[in-house]
Amino acid sequence: MDLKRITSSLLFKIVVAIILGIACSFFFPVWLARVFATFNGLFGNFLGFFVPVLIFALITPAIAGLGRGAGKWLAVTTAIAYLSALVAGLISWGLATVLYPVLLAGQESVKTGDIEKGALEPYLKVDMPAPMEVMTALILAFVVGVAMTSVKSDTLYGGVADLRRVVMKVITVMIIPLLPVYIFGLFLSLGMNGKLVDVLSAFSKVLVLAIVVSFIMLIVQYSIAGTIVRKNPFRSLKNMMPAYFTALGTSSSAATIPVTYECTRKNGVSASVAGFVIPLCATIHLSGSMLKITLFAFAVMFMDGMHIPLGVAVGFILMLGVTMVAAPGVPGGAITAAVGLLSASLGFNDDQVALMIAAYIAIDSFGTACNVTGDGAIALVIDKLAKGTIQRSELDDDDELGLAAAIAGIEETEEKEAEGKAAQQSANQATSKEA
After folding, report:
1. Residue 98 — left, alpha, or beta (φ > 0 → left; ψ -120 to 50 → alpha)?
2. What is the model's pLDDT at position 352?
3. With contact defined as beta carbons under 8 Å apart, do 77 and 275 qualify?
4. What is the pLDDT of the chain when averaged over all its residues?
5. How far apart (Å, rounded) are the C-alpha atoms in residues 10 and 361?
6. Is 296's pLDDT higher than 50?
7. Cα separation of 424 and 411, whole Å?
8. DSSP 8-state symbol, 131
9. Which of 432, 335, 385, 357 is nearest to 51 (CA)?
10. For 171, which DSSP code?
11. Cβ distance 335 to 356 under 8 Å?
């Protein structure tokens, strides 16, 4: 069972794709390699087309949901999760500014943009213009979502919620399963155009840095939470270690929820707050993912000889923070939602985006562990602020449970409810016919 879980994980498939891509680059004929270059071109163009739709479909219902169901404490929890993501991004920018000139000094002559030089030519190219720009999708999602918190329209809210489910289906059925093929094609092309060693050498250093910084981020989060609730931050962090190592093994925030809940309760958080915050933050709090994406994005910019001015970095981090809060709760969902911003804000090309995806997934479990462990810090703060105002009865409210399920990306609840309603309708129809 454990072996089956490992081999079916996205991380395992990505690692295999990287190894096979490197190995096949030594003996693949050019005509066969061009087949994968054609796929990568088509898949990359489809991502460019689909990402604005993805952003609108995910962010609109997430923002609109702030005025429904759980109410004030949902908004407060979401705001803290967003602030945590911003802090993670700013830490990444600061470290990149200070450390990259030293850490990547030997890589200054490596231009990630040179990846395209000598790359394999695809057999077929198909332009796929996006229905809107990424920034347009972000602004439109924000405006419509905020307006919907005031205009109570169940029809409109149900429409954007259905659109979110449709987009999630495309992500889980089409995009995520094809990512290993996309990564295979990238490393195959890198190996055949002689850029592989330079790129891997540079990114290995950033991989190690990202893991180290994730621990620093947890210390910062629990130090802030400890100051607010007046508890020893290191003792609280120690109590969360079972959740950290569970997430490290599963690479799934959702699968770690029961362990995270128990660890949070051990830190003295009330059952009502823990039962509310932990499932919610399992999807909307992605500070670890924010760290990885920003560290690798700034590394690509540095290797391209591009400056990372504070204004550009802050603008990118602000927008990426919104995307992280609304990112789909599936493996690779955060980086999939972020590719549009990488292209629109930082000017990344398809090969650079593919490198980002590979690097992100390579340490996905460390980012997930950072995310879920940080959820415990947010629960400590909410428990202090709420002061008993979040009651157990609130957790039994159908609307709130439906909202939490939608935000957490737990589709099983909705599917079971739909099956139950369908069965009931069938039974009613049968009764009517008999009558």
Report:
1. alpha
2. 75
3. no
4. 75
5. 8
6. yes
7. 20
8. S
9. 335
10. I
11. yes
| Pairwise CA distance, residues 320 & 314, whole Å | 10
Answer whether 236's CB lies under 8 Å from 376's CB: yes
In 3-state terms, what secondary structure has residue 27?
Answer: coil
Q: CB-based contacts of 346: which residues, under 8 Å, 6+ apart?
A: 297, 300, 301, 312, 316
pLDDT of residue 435: 46
The span from the CA of 195 to the CA of 342, in Å, is: 22
Burial 263-292 (b: 16+ CB within 10 A, else e): bbbebebbebbbbbbbbbbbbbbbbbbbbb
Looking from the CA of 33 toward its CB, the CA atoms found within 13 Å total: 22
Instruction: Tell whether the model's pLDDT for residue 329 goes beyond 60.
Output: no
What are the structure tokens assigned to 320, written together?
């990426």
Q: What is the 3-state secondary structure (H, E, C) of 190-219?
A: HHHCCCHHHHHHHHHHHHHHHHHHHHHHHH
| Cα torsion 101, 107, 108, 113: sign | negative
Nearest to 267 by CA among 390, 384, 367, 386: 384
Tokens of 354: 């593919």
Q: At what angle do helices 30-64 and 134-150 cross, to 10 degrees?
A: 20
> Position of tokens 């993805």?
54
CB 282 within 8 A of CB 375: yes
Neighbour count for residue 16 (Cβ, 10 Å)? 14
Distance CA 210, CA 403 (A): 33
Distances (CA, A) of 18 to 28, 121, 174, 180, 400: 15, 20, 20, 8, 42
Q: Predicted confidence band at 31 (pLDDT cuts at 50, 70, 90)?
A: confident
CA separation for the pair 259, 253 (Å, rounded): 10
How many residues are there in the chain? 435
Q: Measured between alpha carbons, how far is residue 330 from residues 78, 162, 172 in Å?
A: 19, 17, 7
Q: What end-to-end distance do the CA atoms of the chain give, in Å?
A: 50
pLDDT in tens, 43-68: 878 877 887 887 788 778 867 765 55
- CA angle 219/225/227 to nearest 5° reads 100
Distance CA 117, CA 213 (A): 33
Chain centre distance of CA 242: 22
Q: What is the pLDDT of residue 374?
A: 92
Cβ pair 144, 60 in contact under 8 A: yes
**Radius of gyration, CA atoms only, the chain:** 22
Residue with structure tokens 């990118």? 316
pLDDT of residue 259: 82
